[in-house]
Amino acid sequence: MEPRGNFVKIKCKCKNEQVVFDRASSEIKCLVCGELIAKPTGGKISMVARPLEDLK
Ligand SMILES: [Zn+2]
What we know:
The chain is mostly beta strands. It has one domain (7-55): CATH 2.20.25.100. It has no helices and six strands. The chain has strands at residues 7-11, 17-21, 28-29, 36-39, 46-47, 50-51. The strands form two sheets. Strands 2-1-6 form a three-stranded antiparallel sheet, with no helix packed on it. Strands 3-4-5 form a three-stranded antiparallel sheet, with no helix packed on it. It starts with 6 loop residues before the first strand and ends in a 5-residue tail after the last strand. 12% of the residues are buried. The chain binds zinc ion. Zinc ion (ZN) binds at residues 12, 14, 16, 30, 32-33, 35.
C-alpha cells in the first residue's frame, strides 16, 4: 500500500478509461461523458463507477 496514494484506472459506463488519483480531494468526472466516477471521502476516493480490477 502506498501511504501517499496512487493512481487507479476507472472505467466509466461510456467505456472511457480514466486514470485518477485515489486520494483526490474533489469529485472526479468522466472527461468524455461528464458522469461522476469517483468522489472524495477525506482519504481514499470512493469509486462510483467500476474500477477496472473488477472487470477481470
Ligand atoms: Zn463516461
